[in-house]
């Protein structure tokens, strides 16, 4: 596999943290140009600090991490007036993990500026991997539309064909900023959409956490510390699941082994109405609308194959070298 130039845009968040560790364990396949952060599972001040905590945990303190948009275009960030994500990710955003306050520097620019500058100066097309609200990506496309030609594809976690999670209509990332999701899905840039229909199939278990405990490395133990939060007494999980769902790591699983996934090129429309439908992704799975497909929407994953890949990559720590 040719080394893939990648920008990860995230809101760590427990599953974001695993996605970051997954990607950082693959320096021969993925060249992380930068990690941009955004509000979402917590305020922007927390998500940028948590991204740096994860880089320090991985021993990769020379990576570039940037702070991003602190709120959505129009809507109030649901985390402002909802304990939804704090219930799932904990007040720290990383469950019960006690990673120290980070000391590695935060990048000098904001996330949007970094995305624009990196794409403007890219010598080859760059893949974007947004796994939180799409506010940074949308802002970058609005501020400097010509960067779109330097994006190879956007592989994102968000949306759903069926039920949402933050409410029956919408998935959390799209619900946080429906207008940003609308900008991305009308951008003309190739999109791979990892929605809830596929990500819900990737649920952790206490047995899998046992496997990690047996690895006996600091990273594996930190992952256990973080994800055990899903198994605390009276844990609040997403509706309809039994374990902690690893939504975001599916983006990295796809980048490393696309053959683990199955989906369809279809038309997707984002609802921006100020109603309960805000952020809803309508997926025209049977091509009823006669509109040009704008996304490859995944609906199947080889879950055992995914966990085999993730476990093997996590087992590579602490010997992962800086890029
Ligand atoms: O709906 C799941 C998404 O919302 C994931 O990205 C999770 O981290 C939260 O941000
Ligand atoms: Ca996320």
What does this entry look like structurally?
- This protein is α/β, with parallel strands linked by helices and about 325 residues long.
- It has one domain (about 5-320): Inosine-uridine Nucleoside N-ribohydrolase, Chain A (Alpha-Beta Complex), CATH 3.90.245.10.
- Helices cover about 35% and strands about 15% of the residues.
- It has 13 helices and 9 strands.
- The protein has a 9-stranded mixed beta sheet, sandwiched between helices.
- Helix 1 (about 15-25) packs parallel to helix 2 (about 45-55), helix 1 (about 15-25) packs parallel to helix 12 and helix 5 (about 110-120) crosses helix 6.
- The longest helix is centred in the N-terminal third of the chain and has 14 residues, at about 45-55.
- The structure holds alpha-D-ribofuranose (RIB) and calcium ion.
- Alpha-D-ribofuranose (RIB) binds near residues 11, 171, 172 and 247.
Number of domains: 1
Radius of gyration of CA atoms, rounded to a whole number: 18 Å
Alpha-carbon distance between the two ends:
16 Å
How are the strands ordered across the major sheet? 3-2-1-4-5-6-9-7-8
Task: Tell me the β content.
Answer: 15-25%
- Counting DSSP E segments of at least 2 residues, the number of strands comes to 9
Average predicted confidence as pLDDT:
94
- CATH fold name, please? Inosine-uridine Nucleoside N-ribohydrolase, Chain A
| Helix/strand order, N-terminal first | EHEHEHHHEHEHHEHHHHEEEH
Globular, elongated, flat, extended or rod-shaped: what is the shape? Answer: globular
Q: What's the architecture in CATH terms?
A: Alpha-Beta Complex
Structural class: alpha/beta
Small molecules bound in the structure, each named once: alpha-D-ribofuranose, calcium ion
Please bin the fraction of helical residues: 25-40%
